[in-house]
Amino acid sequence: YLKESTRRQPWFVIDRRVDQMAAEGVEFRTGTEVGSTLPFDVLLAGYDAVVMTGGAEWPRELEVDGRNLSGIHPAMDYLTQQNKRVAGDSEDRAAPRGTISAKGKHVVVIGGGDTGADCIGTAARQGAASITQIEIMPKPPERENKGLTWPNWPHKLRTAPAHYEGCERDWAVLTKQAVGENGRVTALDCVRVEWVHEAGRMQMREVAGSAFQMKADLALDARGNVRADTEAYQTSVPKVFAAGDMRRGQSLVVWAIREGRQCARAVDEFLMGSTSLPR
Q1: Which end of the chain, N or C, is less surrounded by CB atoms within 10 Å?
Q2: CA torsion sign, 90 to 92 to 94 to 95?
Q3: Is the pLDDT reported for residue 4 higher than 50?
Q4: Are the beta carbons of 187 and 217 closer than 8 angstroms?
Q5: What is the rounded CA–CA span in Å between residue 87 and residue 276?
Q6: pTM for this one?
Q7: Which of 173, 181, 191 is nearest to 110 (CA)?
Q8: Count of CB atoms situated within 10 Å of the CB of 263
Q9: What residues does 163 pair with on adjacent strands?
Q10: Are the beta carbons of 220 and 119 closer than 8 angstroms?
């Protein structure tokens, strides 16, 4: 809850939940970095069980030529800054390694999903000159297959509120390289792709003659985990557990909630020998 985007959850709701948890006996220690301000061996020595739920903050790298140009950023670096500003932090505290702003820029968001939508909404509110979101997969159908049953996820086009704030969306687009001047990104070289069923799986092919260039002053990569048992949620260290995005990789909040409950059950069983908590 502490890291959930303010675009989807008002701060007063988060504060209310934190106050409730504190009243129930949870102690919050802010400004603490495990492994730095708090050595991990000290943590292990002081507690019977340790649960790691730090999210997936290490981004998946965008492996294209020109990636090191200034103006290309992981989505989490961009969104974290804005969350801190909204919370009232000074700019020095919100952006210690330099401000990332979309104001007056032509923004390209690489990748879809909730993170991409958050980038779009944030860029729009910062006053971007234009916003384009590109996705490597083909455009989904507007309506799902009604014959599809649970637990299969309905495959259909999803539009977040942020998309209505102003952006262009393009599908089946592969980023080939970033182009720049004086060390700063100015455009992305892209190509259209098609997906074909071959050798028992879907494979991507570039469409001949479909290369194009997209203007970009700011490129945000919205597409970063600890290995743990999926039943016991234990890592290779018996008393250390991991759950949520830190274990399974970037996913939805509902998965984080589910894994948190399952991990709590696993910890209870580890400490007590049995558990009555639901799975």
Answers
A1: C
A2: positive
A3: no
A4: no
A5: 38
A6: 0.71
A7: 173
A8: 23
A9: none
A10: yes
Give the distance from CA 242 to its chain's centroid: 17
- The reply to whether omega before 59 is within 30° of 0 (cis) is no
Whether residue 179 has pLDDT greater than 90: yes
Give the residue from 5, 274, 242 showing the smallest Cα distance to 119.
5
pLDDT tens, position by position, 261-271: 999 999 999 99
* Tokens 């998946």 sit on residue: 60
CA atoms of 192 and 223, how far apart (whole Å): 18
Q: What is the DSSP secondary-structure string of 109-139?
A: EES-HHHHHHHHHHHHHHT-SEEEEEESSPP
In the chain the domains, ranked by start, together with CATH numbers, are: 31-56+225-272 (3.50.50.60), 72-221 (3.50.50.60)
Measured distance CA(200)–CA(149) in Å, rounded = 23
Six token digits for residue 84: 């801190």
Residue 275 has pLDDT above 70, yes or no: yes
Torsion on CA atoms 74, 255, 125, 133, rounded to nearest 10:
60
